[in-house]
Amino acid sequence: MLSVRPRSVLLLAALIFTIGVSAWAQVSRGTITGIVTDPSGAVVPGVAVTIANTATGVKNNAVTNASGIYTVPLLPAGTYNVIAEKTGFRRYLHSNI
Fold first, then answer.
1. For 12, 26, 64, 89, which has the most beta carbons within 10 A of its beta carbon?
2. The sheet that has 3-4: what strands, in order across it?
């Protein structure tokens, strides 16, 4: 099973809120980033990550790097589902981000 560390989700939320209320430039876009780990806590490179906007159905794709990190920038404000998939692992879904 793949997992996204809760700390990453909190950091992501903080980044989105910070970007959204910036005093220098008001933007309606944000970034979702995270790290994918296996049950032992080891990072997993090469994981296909899909970020899907729940209202529009628009999907953005990324692949984790050698450190297990993925980033999808310039997302319109909204609610998203994050899906992580890799052969040999159970599919992971985090809803309503």
1. 64
2. 3-4, 29-37, 69-76
